[in-house]
Amino acid sequence: MNASQRSITVVGAGAIGGLVAARLAHYASTQANVSVLARGAQLEAIRRNGLTVIEGDAEGERYTAHVNATDNAATLGAQDIVFVCLKGQALAQSAASLAPLVGPHTHIVSAMNGVPWWFLSDFGKTLANGRLESVDPGGAVSAALPPAQASGCVVHLSSSIAAPGVIRKGRGNLLIVGAASARTAAQADEARALLTQAGFDVQAPESIQHEIWAKLWGNMTMNPISALTRSTADVILDDPLTAQLVAAVMAEARTIGEAMGIGLAMTIDERNAITRKLGAFKTSMLQDVEAGRTLEVEALLGAPYELAQRAGIGAPSLGMLYGLARQLDANLEAARQVRATNT
């Protein structure tokens, strides 16, 4: 690595993390020395063949980026930038193993669904600087990845794993990247510049917490309801009873956000109209159910419910949906364990 390069590790080389790592290595190689933390078939494929990206739904532009791939953070040492592209439940389980990546000047950028562990860093009015047990159990995530060194990235693009080591880029190209607090403002500027060079459309928000909550406002209902019912989003919104539940949870989430200083410009109907335009799609949580994976229950529902409890805000519809989704995830986990025992 030359003196001008930044050491960058992407934690989680899946659909989003793999795309970020490959584009940085391919388009910004003079500024970025890129490593990835991966596991299983994805790790072996990246080690063997590199990370291949297919741009577009059809066989469009195709390129392969070669990155340093490992499953052991200790072999990489402290990095300049760490992109965390794990699901919340995976991060809670693996956070301690990521500590070797973080030095006193490391910039941590989370690109995750739902509420991240650092969400209340210098934010949230009376809730500011509290720790969210739902996404930071026992403080394990904060201990390894200090909130004072964090920024957030809200992802507005689609991407999928076509095969181990192969990422297919779908629609959209927008990343919204902002500092969790003023302490990482300059580092967030640098991250935006690198991601722009890597070919993303990058925006700087007035508040990254506002952007996270605005995205959450839509997917905190569609995801768990689709997982519970196995229905696509259009069916959920077409049924007056499930549509009523969607609206009730969104109304409660609006109130929770307002308690933290987050104002949502859209009405519930306007936000759901955006979802309707996407047609009969399967949410990521429904896809996880069908694939037998763990669910993003805490980041999408547990953290908002915890925030409501702390703010003294009644959220019965959110609580009901959270409870149902939590039971579904527990039952799926029990079934996975049975299958593992029988194989």
Keywords summarizing the entry:
343 residues, alpha/beta, Rossmann fold, N-(1-d-carboxylethyl)-l-norvaline Dehydrogenase, domain 2, 2 domains, eight-stranded mixed β-sheet, 12 helices, 12 strands, 45% helix, globular
Side-by-side strand order of the widest sheet: 5-2-1-6-7-8-11-12
Please name the CATH topology of the largest domain.
Rossmann fold
Please state the CA-atom Rg, rounded to the nearest Å: 20 Å
Termini separation: 45 Å
Listing every helix as H and every strand as E from the N terminus to the C terminus, the arrangement reads EHEHEEEEHEHEEEEHEHHHHHHH
> What is the correct CATH architecture of the largest domain?
3-Layer(aba) Sandwich
Number of domains: 2
What's the number of helices? 12
Shape: globular
How would you state the average pLDDT, rounded?
Answer: 95
The CATH homology group name of the largest domain: NAD(P)-binding Rossmann-like Domain
Helix content range: 40-55%
Q: Kindly estimate the percentage of residues that lie in beta strands according to DSSP.
A: 15-25%
CATH class of the largest domain: Alpha Beta
Reported for the largest beta sheet, the result is: 8 strands, mixed
Structural class: alpha/beta
Low-confidence stretches: none
- The number of strands is 12
